[in-house]
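User: Fold this; C-alpha cells only.

Assistant: Input:
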Amino acid sequence: MSGNEEKVAALGHAMVEQLMGIIGAPDDQDVARAADSVVRDLDALLRAQPDPAA
C-alpha cells in the first residue's frame, strides 16, 4: 500500500468514527466540525490523486 493509499484508508476510518460520533451526539457542533474537517481532508486528498486508468 502506498503512502497516499494509507492516508486515504486512515481518513476513511476516521470519517466512520466521526460519523458514529454524529449519530451519538447529533446536536453537538464540535462533533460536527470535527467530522467536517475529516471529510474535507479526505476530499482534498482524493481530488489530488490522478484519475484511474479507464
